[in-house]
Batch of 4 targets.
Target 1
Amino acid sequence: MPEATPTNTSTAVVEANALTFSYGTREVVNIEHFQLAAGESIAVIGPSGCGKTTFLHMLAGLLKPTSGRIHLLGSDITAMSDTELDHFRGQQVGMVFQRLLLMPALNVRQNVELAQQLARKPRDKARIDALLKQLSLVDFAQHKPRMLSQGQAQRVAIARALVHNPALVLADEPTSALDDEQAVQALTLLKETATSAGAALLVVTHDQRVRGQLDRELEMGLPT
């Protein structure tokens, strides 16, 4: 059973206990205890099929665990209704999905701004401008997703995940489509932004370039 405990448990953003998830009779996640502190970052690593993305989706409230409890900022998200969870996630969680899920009808700036709207926060043009500049996206601000390379689209997804200053940032393979320079840039921005905002950062990855770049690692193995 993987176990991961932060260096400072007094400021835990995420705490999960006796957490399992099964597809039918096949158990893919079994984590006895997990905590992630404010300002801390962790890489969840392991081979394909070991349950990394399933674990991330449970922490985001997109999947209900088969058993166990997940507390985010002290609130038990496993006990929330779908409506409560949607509202809570929109305000407190920023996500970089593996499939990105950018809105095709919106341009880059609008896709990033949408996260602020969904979080019910005031439009912050300066925040958007800063992220677009940091991620080398200024020249593409008016482009629709179909006009972007995969790497550019991935950087838009990272900006969208960070723009509303969430308490928890979850990134599923955020460097997979990036070259070495862009991967360092994106990972550095994710970590520095999360740290400066006091947010917790969890990155699911099999990218060896990520190893050693975050505060600690949780290694998951294939289910037996």
Target 2
Amino acid sequence: MKSGFKNFGLVMIGGAIMFAFVTIARQSKNSKADSIIENKASQNAFNDAKIVRTSYASSPQNVDFVEAAEKTVNAVVHIRTEISHNGYNSNDIFGTLHQYFHGSPYPGNMPIMEGFGSGVVLTDDGYIVTNNHVVDGADKIEVTFNDKRKLTAIIIGTDPTTDLALVKVSGQGFDHIVYGDSDKVHIGEWVLAVGNPFNLTSTVTAGIVSAKARNINILGDGASVESFIQTDAAINRGNSGGALVNTMGELIGINAAIASQTGGYEGYSFAIPSNIVRKVVDDLIKYGEPKRAYLGVEIQEMTSELATEIGEKEIKGVFIARTVEGGGADEAGIKKGDIITRIDENNVNSLSQLLETVGQHRPGDKVTVNIIRDHKPHVFQVELKNQDGGIEMSKQKNSFYNEALGVTLEGISTTDKTKLGIKNGLKIVSLSDGVLMRGGINKGFILMVINGQYVDNQDDLNSALRNNSNKSVRIQGMYPNGMKISFEFYN
């Protein structure tokens, strides 16, 4: 590739020299006086020219990364996780039978898997944001700060649809990063990627914003929000969950992925925009789960073929293929065939841009939607709704202990229900000695039906357990990997 550019450059230079030679030869008959006049005119024109430099187009050598680095390196931490395995598949029927009859799983030490990543401290009392894939399934989370302090963290909440998770360590006075406005980030803007990989203390790399609203289909779920900031700042393994900051040291993204054929950095890295991060983190603190808002439309991205088909001269906006009955867009008067061009202050030309803009809001928020209908512009005020068509945002219920089953249970978030394809259930978060433990059931199992009654909360469970006139309890449920189990036991 480089040799190609060299050859190209040589061709251009050679052409310039040849052109100059011919020109000089043709002008050899001109007088010296004419040449002197021309040279003076050229010199005066050069002296009169004004050099204009805009405030945002400074050359690389004029960019100072020192202040931004100093503001951020101590607020980016190393995260080490441990995931325990029972020495057999927790859903292996032979393993569960062995534990039922012998009171323990297969003999031998339980192997431990380790994972690594980075995290960003957001508050002085120890809230840390990272990627969901960094802490997913972790039994233990250890956080190492830039000054080599090590603290244990607990998970506050997770959001697989954005690949974000919030953890917390105990303490006060932690260095932390302030949010920037990712909507105002420009392509070509200088950024720093700050990570804490492999426990080497914080490292900083620089690059520019290459693109915005990138959908790289990495989360693999139709409900996922993918609208990444693309940058060429070098990011490698262990940097997942680290910070992408502007030259003022403000957080504009959480580094999540790289495009690579080898597993190493090859020039493309992707970060979750800070405006989405801020909203998800606030939700996890206030409600224990993310509160997704929906516009209530199915869209199709505009193409030249679609524009020609519907008679539009410009290829812009997103085409509404269907509105959800009773959804926010439907109730506001938006119809199938309309073209959304703008939501609030943000232009919308792709699904990613629409998801990013709506993803910054909660059910009940109102947004201004600009559309084109019959080649004419219209403006609508739309109240966003939740997945169930309402605007309620109740806080996730706390866990509770059931003595009859010997388990601590908690409700399942709407996000997890959607991900698992279920409508109800109670997840086991811990077990003590009891019928379920003796039956080989493990942490993470989801109770869905007891004695023929669907259970989704503590009242449902108590009612279902009372419904056992023959002194038996019939349980149906599943593990998160999709394996379903049904069994019956007697009191």
Target 3
Amino acid sequence: MRVLFQLFFLFLAHNLIAQGFQVNFQGQKQQGMGCAGTALPRDASSLFYNPGSAVFLNENSVIVGGTPVFANVLFIDSASNGAYRTNSPIGTPFSVYGMFQAKSSAKLKFGIAINTPFGSTIQYEDGWIGRFALTRLSLKAIFIQPTFAYRISDNIGIGGGFVISKGSVNLQKDLPIQDANGVYSHAELAGKAIGIGYNFGIHLNANKKLNIGIDYRSKINMKVNDGEVTFSVPNSLSANFPNGNFTSSLPLPSVLTLGAALKLNRSLTFVVDVNAVGWKVYDTLSFDYKQNTSSLSDTKSARCYKNTFAFRGGMEWVALRCYSKSASNEIMTEDAVVTKIPLHELLVRCGGGFGISPVQNGYVTPETPDANRAYGTIGLGYNFNLKTGIDLSLYYTKIKRADTNIETQISGTYTTIAWCPGISFYYRW
């Protein structure tokens, strides 16, 4: 009983920082190109992907977008060959960006980025074989990033911002204790977390066709203070499972990204990103419970995650570009070069990627049945006029992994399928 309950808390961090169903859902243009865009300034979402790129956008703009996540997990138990599924609600990652400059072609720009790089809900069907490990887990994490960007020269830009992360979690599981009516006991954990980090980026226009970008997003230590634990157990066991509080510290990994963008001609651009993700920070997880009993004690458990890489790439093709005969869509740069902005544009995007799982054999859990994953994306963008436009994307992945967890001994094969359609609207002036 003591071990089972300790594992209940260990699962909290697993979904918080593992890949799960989450990818770089922070910009629809980038999502359409395989979630790559560190070296390609396209809109205010560069505040997330690479703040150093934002200085090469000559505009004030606001973007609002979201990417609903439709994901299902099928688990086949090794011993019984029984099949169990999730009935999770739709995930709702979103992003909001605002970027501002004091005057046209200003070297210094300011912005604010609000997004949800971590967060989902996974819920298994009633009575599934792993009910004593998990029945439901809901996680929400919102990142708020005030940002600055400065153009050092015509070819080099730098930028950075502080990240404030606020989150909440609700985790539920059954306990292998039955009352007189045969109903299993239940445990629920709920808490709020907060952490601070930063994002820093450099952008280089190597020549007229090639851009290079480097971005670093720091580790964020999410601290849970005064989390609440609630038990539904027979009265005779209430002293062993007291309702109370706990504290913990859960790490979100750092991400170093190197990206390149190659503009072959006026209509065709290719992008590629390589992410180095510092998952090794999730080596050991500890929890401190305010009230300990013979069934509930403070825990310290090895998780042994490993650092990993992810590879992303894609392309953007301008299928339609129309210019107005009016001079109202012309802008003059500081070098007195007149540039025309297209009145209408239709852009087609596609891409894909491959990510290496940080979860080593023996540590796969029902919360994040993670595996090495390949995925594909497509996207469309359309400018209605000089100020407004829409971007669409679609992400698909299917992953499969068989494993036996060394602590819970849950053994079987997980198959996860996720469809993620995205949409965003922008306004610039």
Target 4
Amino acid sequence: MFARKILVVEDEKILASNIRKSLQKLGYSVSEITKSGEEAIKKVAETHPHLVLIDICLAGEIDGVHVADIIQNQFHVPVVYLTDRSEYKTLHKNQLNEPFNYIVKPFIESDLHFAIEMALYKHQSKKILYEEKQRLTAIINSMGCAVIVTYANGCIQMMNPTAEIITGWKQSEAFGKNLVEVVNLVDKDIREKIGNLATHVIEAGEVFNLPENCTLITKDGKEIAIGDNVAPIRDQNGNITGAVLVFQDITKRKQTEAQLIRNAFYDGLTALPNRVLFLDRLTQAIERSKRRSDYYFAVLFLDLDGFKEINDRFGHGIGDDFLIAIARRLESCLRSGDTVARFGGDEFTVLLEDIKDITDATNVAKRIQKSLRLPVNLNGYQLSTTASIGITWSFTNYDEPATLLRDADIAMYRAKRQGKATYAIFS
């Protein structure tokens, strides 16, 4: 095994020589003995010793304590102080406050050996801990998720760069603050603020998943949808020492989910509810009518008159724009609680809920016809249409949406046979 190299900094020649002999006898390598602090710093930079043995009261401009601070903080080399008993009494409360970092003169070789080995062991342990901390910090900082670590009292200990970006807070600003000051969360489902999640999991002792619609209010007031969890941190004995909050910006995921839902339930061209959503609402209306004897609803089935001619004459682009304009016209003819859907092609359906009688439905049909006759200006063309409308309502106690729609469709074709631009009631 190689001999560990020690730099001796001592301005008393005889003592320095004796220390060198003792160290060599103990198996250490002593290549240099220096007399001043300035020279000691230079030698540390040149020779890179494993340890520096330094007289605490050196002659010269820089004393031993100052030199030792430079050596330990800038070069990361462990230091053992040499001190007289009188110096020890004076300096003990200030500089010599760590165990095993000094030895009082005169000393025996066994004490010297013990002090050096303990200093080397402490330095190695600190180095390992530091490297492990740096490794863990590098891992946390490399994560794509935001990570915030708190103390046991729920105050912030550290946060990684991703957390800084998402929250808008710098770690230096957030350090020591209560978690809720930096991570301001709101549950969008119940419109309530979320308290300190760190203290919550610390008290519960278990992982807590963020609510489905958890929203972070950033430092500058921006709202960001986030997701993931917060978990307690335990030491080797199982004691909870803090909490770690891991989260990520899920705004894009939420937008994708919303788009998927929209694609599933809404028409891509007109943005009206599609057949699937209309049937679902119609089913709910049927069930509601079974529970309430005073609840009536009606369905209107519309087919635009002459839409094929518009498509053929002006092209599908104009045809699509015309359908979009018609969709807005139909919406304007209804109450907020009613539903108009595009069933396909130029067919539309309307669900009128909580009506008094069939007159309410026929009045809406008349209002729709009047609105459709108003021309639509598209690319300089004045286009208008009418609709054949079939009407059925819940007075006949329908059980299935398909049966009700079939009858509304039959009534619509009856209206077409009557000359279009009119409505017919199924009976």
